[in-house]
Amino acid sequence: MAEKKILLAEDDEMLASLLKFRLEKGGYAVSHARDGRQVKEYLESQKADIIISDIMMPYFSGIELVEFLRNELEDSTPVIIMSTAGNESNVLNAFEMGADDFVSKPVSPSELLVRVGKLLRQRAY
């Protein structure tokens, strides 16, 4: 079976490198985008099996990413949104736009791995 591709959209370099390391150890191929512009460029040229995105990013928020993916690209790739706790309205907006899951920061890399695996298994049916 081919390695599943994850697009990780996160502007915090420390968190991104930690998550990238854990996801790659979990057997995934991870591409990292530092801001919304890089996310759009990636999505216009290739496809990920799952997208993990911070809700607050320069140029293009996680909510705008979900909206772009669902409406402009008409793409149903699963999206996991990450956000600091206490940002409930943003999280609800993301779900309304079509996000599939949510994890609050600080993110547990182990929990994220479980959620990624779960979404990918659901997608396989």
UniProtKB/TrEMBL annotation:
GO cellular component annotations of the record: cytosol; protein-DNA complex
Residue numbers carrying 4-aspartylphosphate: D54
Gene Ontology biological process terms in this record: regulation of DNA-templated transcription
Listed InterPro entries: CheY-like_superfamily (IPR011006), Sig_transdc_resp-reg_receiver (IPR001789), WalR-like (IPR039420)
Keywords noted in UniProt: DNA-binding, Phosphoprotein, Transcription, Transcription regulation, Two-component regulatory system
Keyword Repeat attached: no
Annotated PROSITE patterns: RESPONSE_REGULATORY
Location of the Response regulatory domain: 5-120
GO MF annotations in UniProt: phosphorelay response regulator activity; transcription cis-regulatory region binding
Protein name: Two-component response regulator
Organism ancestry: Bacteria, Pseudomonadati, Bacteroidota, Flavobacteriia, Flavobacteriales
